Amino acid sequence: LDPDIVVHNIVTLPNIKPVKQKLRKMHPRVALLVKEELQHLLSANFIQPIDYPQWVSNVVPVTKATGKI
């Protein structure tokens, strides 16, 4: 997708300190599915890696009716 059409940004206010969520551990099987889906999206150039100094929220996998994430 063209970045002129859609771009996702994490909006944070500069004068407010972000609150870090407690790290939520995933089942190893689910973590593997998430990793595979991320690799698929990266190879399709649908997403790109970025570096934030800290993470703000956890990944929440949602299983589709087909069993995919």
Automatic annotation (TrEMBL):
Organism annotation: Taxus chinensis (Chinese yew)
UniProt-listed Gene3D superfamilies: HIV Type 1 Reverse Transcriptase, subunit A, domain 1
Protein name from the UniProt record? RNA-directed DNA polymerase (Reverse transcriptase)
